[in-house]
Amino acid sequence: MPREFELCPGRRVGGEQPCFIIAEIGQNHQGDLDIARRMIRMAKECGADCAKFQKSELEHKFNKKALERPYTSKHSWGKTYGEHKRHLEFSHDQYRELKKYAEEIGIFFTASGMDEMAVEFLHELDVPFFKVGSGDTNNFPYLEKTAKKGRPMVISSGMQSMNTMHQVYQIVKPINPNFCFLQCTSAYPLQPEDVNLRVISAYQSAFPDIPIGYSGHETGIAISVAAVAMGAKVVERHVTLDKTWKGSDHQASLEPNELAELVKAIRTVEKAMGSPIKQLLPCEMACNEKLGKSVVAKVTIPEGTILTLDMLTVKVGEPKGFPPEAIFDLVGQKVKRHIEEDETITEQAVENHVKKVKC
Q1: Taking the model in full, what pTM does it have?
Q2: Hey, CA dihedral for 66, 67, 70, 76, is it positive or negative?
Q3: Rounded distance, CA 110 to CA 122, Å?
Q4: Predicted confidence (pLDDT) per residue in 285-325, tens digit
Q5: Where is the AFP-like domain (predicted)?
Q6: Which of 237, 233, 168 is nearest to 206 (CA)?
Q7: What is d(CA 250, CA 252) in angstroms, rounded to the nearest whole number?
Q8: Complete DSSP assignment for 73-106
Q9: 70 conformational bin, left if phi > 0, alpha if psi -120 to 50, beta if neither
Q10: Which of 48, 122, 268, 274 has the smallest number of CB atoms closer than 10 Å to its CB?
């Protein structure tokens, strides 16, 4: 199994650990601190492990022209892209308030550092781990500096190639071994045919010593649950209080009832994964007693007869006798008492029978 590591204090990921579920609030809080608190509580009440935001230091993430360009989208919170982003960006003090609130109600808190200065702030804020958004996964100087902080890292892979992900691995691994990759496709909302869950298996083969997870932007929960069945050890989904709100991420986000159902479904699937050992289970005994078949005499068999296959058949019998898989082993054996037609063949009726051990 992939190695496991402590992602948050007392919470490990990878190996046989339960899937770590991140509720990505992002900027779906509409720039409102009260809504942000409500969303943190919602994530906690729905059973998520972590509430996550997106932190930018805008002058370090965007150049001046990018901030000054007109932004006329129906999702805009300002006349320019800079005004729009400033409306959605919480201050350092507001982040401290939100982290304190998350700690008070008992849910882990972190954010994607959307630029190097944001990472510096989040490091000062003492978040348990850094989330690297897909837009920075091929930003190798950023990756190096973030890895050197020594905190665990969760790295999304939207818009990247396998070659790039190998480079990311080679950069981060020698500096900081505590990281994982998330399969991700950067489209909102994401269509099923563009999800490519098989990349999870490809990552598991290419990077067998780190956990692999999934960051989804699709609608509904089925695909994310399937990712867990394929071995995803971290799942991240955007969340919202209302999909109809202004903002480009809301449509690809889960409302509270959906997030709760996702968490429940993931925990159910984890139980269902069970053991790779195939055997008769205690829960099957009642069915086996009622419907399990036995070897039965097809004809009357006198005492001393050497059994042949044409003397035997398989039926649900009373009492239980030899199981069907023993029928070939019985051929050539001698019976030590008279057996009536349609009677169950029991061990007591066969001379010196020795069960063959299955390998």
Answers
A1: 0.91
A2: positive
A3: 8
A4: 999 999 999 999 999 999 999 999 999 999 999 999 999 99
A5: 294-353
A6: 168
A7: 5
A8: -TT-SSSBHHHHHHHHPPPHHHHHHHHHHHHHHT
A9: beta
A10: 274
CATH number of 282-344: 3.90.1210.10
345 neighbors 339 (Cβ within 8 angstroms): yes
CATH class of 4-273: alpha beta
Write the pLDDT tens digit of every residue in 76-134.
999 999 999 999 999 999 999 999 999 999 999 999 999 999 999 999 999 999 999 99
Q: How does DSSP classify residue 216?
A: E
Quote the CA–CA distance of 87 and 67 in Å, as a whole number. Answer: 13
3-state secondary structure of 307: coil
Give the residue carrying structure tokens 């054996």.
333
Type of residue at 80:
T
- C-beta of residue 19 within 8 angstroms of C-beta of residue 234: yes
C-alpha span between 99 and 331 (Å, rounded): 73
- At 12, the amino acid letter reads R
Cis (ω within 30 of 0) for the bond into 192? no
